[in-house]
Design a protein that fits this description.
binds 4'-deoxy-4'-aminopyridoxal-5'-phosphate; cysteine desulfurase activity; Cysteine desulfurase; single chain; 14 helices; alpha/beta; Aspartate Aminotransferase, domain 2; lyase; PyrdxlP-dep_Trfase_major; about 400 residues; pyridoxal phosphate binding; Aspartate Aminotransferase, domain 1; four-stranded antiparallel beta sheet; 2 domains; about 15% strand
């Protein structure tokens, strides 16, 4: 049973008090974006009220305060993911941005005929940049298949892996199904063949505290907005040697050492990958979000969310005709489902009328939907501020939708 004080936690989230269509909001779209606690909102208001200034170049007090707070946030991110060095943390606009930085960098490394490998369980943002990279370089994209439970077929992964494989990328947790992938095995095996590994931690980060040194991963990317932070900020962790090897992604201010019209030299890490004025407030608020989640504690968060997952799975499966996609042994608190004979969008619309926010559709993972031969699913995704009572509201709403639509 949970050790979290859910009543106190819910008070931190002002949005949870609002009504939608006259009903209390039941927010179960956490895999799309999480809600923001007052502590993070306060950090944002404090920045704009008291020390809004551009960073890294001003001699004036406000600029120094903003620079200190931003670099302090970088260190919070470094400590959270246990990177060895602060300059291995690139503050990005989010997961998509981080992946594109690495994909662009590998254009300078890959040769025609080199192989790169993706999993069948990916979000489009961990597919499309790599296809663009293949077009640019002549590299070949291989796909690790999945099974009906929504797990990767690891025997196939080992068969596909070869001396030609230069890079493997997959998510730590699938946003569409919640599957936790065996990234340790993927990283170890890829390294034995000399391939680098990028892990998309966008969906893992709200539930699992990844230790990049223990994982020995080459790149790990996350979005702040999935873990109680604001949108438009995230992290790309890269091993120092890799970040030094990859060329910069964007050119501009802040990322240079010296500029003449003949030649420009680039700034040291992390600035080489942080062209232009960054999302200063977002970075600071991301740090505040990590403080907030760490004060609650990731083991307690994961245990409680698992309780919600088990409870919701059992109650939803009792509904006639309801099928859950993604039944992996290891999964986070995501339930992706359909009811036979009903389009997911129709269920989602009725749920919204009842105040229940879920996502419907392909969840930016069309290949997974194609695999199951479905147009999409209804996805309920839980966070540590959700309750069993809210799961009951969801289940009653789905039953009502079924009765109305069948
Ligand atoms: N990968 C996964 C697994 C995701 O869930 C998401 C967000 N849905 C992304 C990548 C993209 O993240 P963002 O849109 O924040 O860049």
């Amino acid at each position: 049973q949970t050790v979290l004080d859910i009543v106190a936690i819910r008070k931190d989230f002002p949005i949870l008090n609002r009504k939608v269509n006259g009903k209390p909001l039941v927010y179960l779209d956490n895999a799309a974006t999480s809600q923001t606690p007052q502590q993070v909102i306060d950090a944002i208001v404090d920045y704009y009220s008291n020390y809004n200034a551009n960073i890294h170049r001003g001699v004036h007090t406000l600029s120094q305060e903003a620079t200190d707070a931003y670099e302090q946030a970088r260190i919070k991110v470094q400590k959270h993911f246990n990177a060895e060095k602060a300059h291995e943390i690139i503050l990005t606009a989010g997961t998509t941005h981080g992946i594109n930085i690495v994909a662009n960098g590998f254009a300078a490394i890959l040769q025609p005929g080199d192989e790169i490998m993706v999993s069948a369980l990916e979000h489009h943002s961990n597919i499309v940049p790599w296809q663009m990279l293949c077009e640019r370089t002549g590299a070949i994209l291989k796909v690790i298949p999945m099974n009906l439970e929504g797990e990767l077929v690891m025997a196939e992964f080992h068969k596909l892996l070869s001396d030609r494989t230069k890079l493997v990328f997959c998510n730590h947790v699938s946003n569409a199904l919640g599957t936790v992938n065996p990234i340790e095995e993927i990283i170890d095996s890829a390294h034995k063949k000399g391939a680098a590994v990028l892990i998309d931690g966008a969906q893992a980060a709200p539930h699992i505290k990844a230790d990049v040194q223990q994982l020995d991963v080459d790149f790990y990317v996350v979005s702040g907005h999935k873990m109680c932070g604001p949108t438009g900020v995230g992290m790309l962790y890269g091993k120092e040697a890799w970040l030094q090897k990859l060329p910069p992604y964007q050119g501009g201010g802040e990322m240079i050492a010296e500029v003449t019209f003949e030649k420009t030299t680039y700034a040291d890490l992390p600035h080489k990958f942080e062209a232009g004025t960054p999302n200063i407030c977002g970075g600071i608020a991301f740090g505040a979000a990590l403080d907030y989640m760490n004060a609650i504690g990731f083991p307690a968060i994961a245990a409680y969310e698992d309780e919600l997952l088990q409870y919701a799975t059992e109650k939803l499966l009792a509904i006639e005709g309801l099928k859950i996609y993604g039944t992996a042994k290891e999964k986070t608190a995501v339930v992706s489902f359909n009811i036979e004979g009903i389009h997911p969008y129709d269920i989602g619309s009725i749920l919204d009328k009842l105040g229940v926010a879920v996502r419907t559709g392909h969840h930016c993972a069309q290949p997974i939907m194609e695999f199951f031969k479905i147009p999409g699913t209804v996805r309920a995704s839980f966070s540590f501020y959700n309750t069993k009572e809210e799961v009951d509201v969801l289940v009653a709403a789905v039953e009502k939708a079924r009765a109305m639509l069948l």
